[in-house]
Amino acid sequence: MAPRKASIGRLMLLIVLVFALVFMPSHLRTSAGEADLLVYWSASRLLATGGNPFDQTQLQTLQNLTRPGSVNPLQGWAAWNPPWLLLVLLPLGLLPFDWAVRVWGLCSVGLILAACAWTWRWVADPADRLGLVIVLVSALAFGQTVSCLAVGQIGALLLFGLVLGLWCLQTGHDHCAGIALLLTTIKPHMTYFLLWLVLLWVIRRRRWKVAVGLLGSALACMLVLWLIFPGWLSAYVRLLSGHTNVVFGISAATIGGLAYALWGTHVLRFAGVLLLPLTGVVLPLVDSLGWLTTMNIALLMSVPLAPYGFNYDQVVLLPSIVQMIAWMRGGELTRNWTWGIASGLLLMNAVLLRMLTLRFLYDHWLAWVPLVLAALYALAWKQRHLATGQRALAVQEQGE
């Protein structure tokens, strides 16, 4: 068993390294982590220097001064995320943009690797160091990680908040869970179903410390914002009211976004509400399977049905890949299915990376990624349970 597992692991690591070396550098050099970070940095810069971080004119002026020609002169982009994100990124606003790009790139890589390493420790044998290396390299070579780093997005914060928050829930650190889960609200369109499950679980279990941690940290952030920029609330409301149609005007890497691109209909934009009747099926999984598995199932179901979202937002699906690698490395799948699932993951990522190298690729053409990942996860799940049943039957027969 050990030699076979080691040979499969080394082959997977070699293939993943090839992906990382061939695809990642060229794509990262294209954008150098600046495109979206310019938006977040300019908002945090204005907040740090006494400006209005939600004013389109001030944002446009600063963005064009920082990177002339990189922003449409008729439209500056704004950060529509909940305003406590700007407090998290405020240290970046104190730095020149060139330094902020480097610092945020290192922070993003560190947060992604930390979240994946934490997930691995949660589900796998800590002594399996080769498995941990495979996980970390796979995380960096994942196409959506590459995209997230290439444009300077904030998906690393979202991923880290998910893993840390749910680990704290699982281990009973309720106050810390609430504080960490505040990070998951910076993109609520990606975590809506999971947050709904957490809310119901907290109410049913009367784990009020989670709510205290979440609401307390949110209120503390808003208080600090009032001290720095007293008019932030009205400015933020004006920003949102001026972009009420933004959800319907973007190319989204979701089923709703694909449906709009192909057929011009918005009817599937809010298909996520169809998950509400499944709450009674998914929520009990917390008791039987734990929060990590419940999170992976919830995200694989909800991310493709989100109202909108970009391909780099799918970096939150990394824990499901880590869990599948743990099942394969732990011998919980048969040899044939280990090779099959591993090949499926590698092929999926190869196609994804190839698509990301195309020019003028609209995000709606990447709505297939979470669907394929969900199918692989479901297959691995089923075969894992079949293999477990077969082993149990074999042990029983030996005992007789």
Characterization of the model:
The chain is mainly alpha-helical and 400 residues long. It has one domain (2-394). It has helices spanning 2-31, 37-48, 56-66, 84-88, 90-93, 97-123, 129-141, 143-151, 155-171, 174-181, 188-205, 208-228, 232-241, 255-263, 279-282, 285-289, 291-302, 318-329, 335-356, 368-399. It is globular. The two termini are 25 Å apart.
Q: Secondary-structure blueprint of this entry?
A:
Blueprint: H1 2-31, H2 37-48, H3 56-66, H4 84-88, H5 90-93, H6 97-123, H7 129-141, H8 143-151, H9 155-171, H10 174-181, H11 188-205, H12 208-228, H13 232-241, H14 255-263, H15 279-282, H16 285-289, H17 291-302, H18 318-329, H19 335-356, H20 368-399
What's a quick, concise take on this entry?
Helix content is 70%, strand content 0%.
Mean pLDDT: 88
Shape: globular
Integer count of domains: 1
> Strand portion, in percent?
under 5%
Low-confidence stretches: 23-30
What is the radius of gyration computed over CA atoms, rounded to a whole number of angstroms?
22 Å
Task: Count helical runs.
Answer: 20
Topology order in helix (H) and strand (E) letters: HHHHHHHHHHHHHHHHHHHH
Structural class: mainly alpha
Number of strands: 0
Question: Roughly what percent helix?
Answer: over 70%
